[in-house]
Amino acid sequence: MGTVTGIDRVAEHEKTRAALRAVVARLVRLLRDLPDLEVASGVPEWTVGDVGAHVAAVHLAFGSGFTGESVEWDTVLPPGDGPFVERLTAVNALSIGLLGGDERTRLGDLIAERGEAFLRETDGLAPDTPVPTPWYGQERTLTLAAATGMMLSESLLHGLDIARGARLPWPIGPDEARLVLGQSMPTMMPLALDTAKAQGVSIAFDVAIKGGPRLAVVIDEGAATVTRDAPPRAYDCRITAAPAAFLLVAFRRMPVWKAIARGQMRAGGRKPWQALRLTELIASP
After folding, report:
1. pTM, entire model
2. Which of 20, 150, 181, 232 has the fewest CB atoms lying closer than 10 Å?
3. Within 10 Å of residue 22's Cβ, how many Cβ atoms?
4. pLDDT tens, position by position, 45-70
5. How many C-beta atoms surround the C-beta of residue 18 within 10 A?
């Protein structure tokens, strides 16, 4: 993925931890105030209770390598090491059933406990500390920085899903979105590449997020690399976007046309029409 220069990785990691703590607290308040967990959420076929159970499972999964809380992965993970999206879709479907009825009544407490346990047990660890993530692939690990960014992403986006179901506001701040994009996207975008669609494709995107980060996304013959603040090079397409808008478009929470219509995203470069291909090639289950 290249070498990141000019970034204080420790300071950015600490900012991500602080943002995660604040967003978890906000999510917990949202869940505790909901009168009905069975209403539809922003995720098709999931109730707001299902989404909350999924977030609790995510916090358990990322923290299990540090907190000692056991997970019987053999009963959760699909066999083999199939395509990323198929694997993650299967795990997500199973995750909502990991909590029983009694546990569902205290979703907010569970998320608060697990989120705080993760932050407590990882306090002071280096950003490049490996975190086991077998749900992404057999023997797969992320760095602690990327894992923390993913926990922030899951908490923000699924908080939005719950709030939409409850018809409540859920703002995603630009600084929160920048931290997700900078900490987790360079790792997760290559993993989420639809390798079948990417066969025979050679295209380079310059993704310039307003206020940072800047990502060089290069897709070539079924593989992708994502580099922060890459050295100058020729690009086929330049995408300039507001941080929260890019996050929502990337994770299918906002259609790209709406971001464009609001002036939050635009494309340029030699082949601006290729911008639409980025969300086709990088999958989001």
Report:
1. 0.93
2. 232
3. 14
4. 899 999 999 999 999 999 988 987 76
5. 12
